[in-house]
Structure prediction request, 103 residues.
Amino acid sequence: ENVARLKRERILNHISLMEGKHIVGMTSSFAALNFDILKSLQPSIILFEEIGELLEAQTISIIPESIKHIIMIGDEQQLQPKVNNHQLELNYDLQNEKTNVVF
Prediction:
């Protein structure tokens, strides 16, 4: 009971700090663990930096229904895309560090 109350208070505190702000930054891990906070803020734009580091399922899971625009930034030369499919790795040579595949 105390744990649930503390969690609710923490969520409400986060929301009150972020409400009304034009820009709110958070890691994808924080967004995933605190999706209720992100959803309650009802953002219309979401920006993902270093998108190549996230799998599609991770990305989709943190996009609330209120989103109208998604901005994805990534440099495949700096951080190689992560692929969780062995067949794709073989077909597109994604295990090689010099891959020039753009997603």
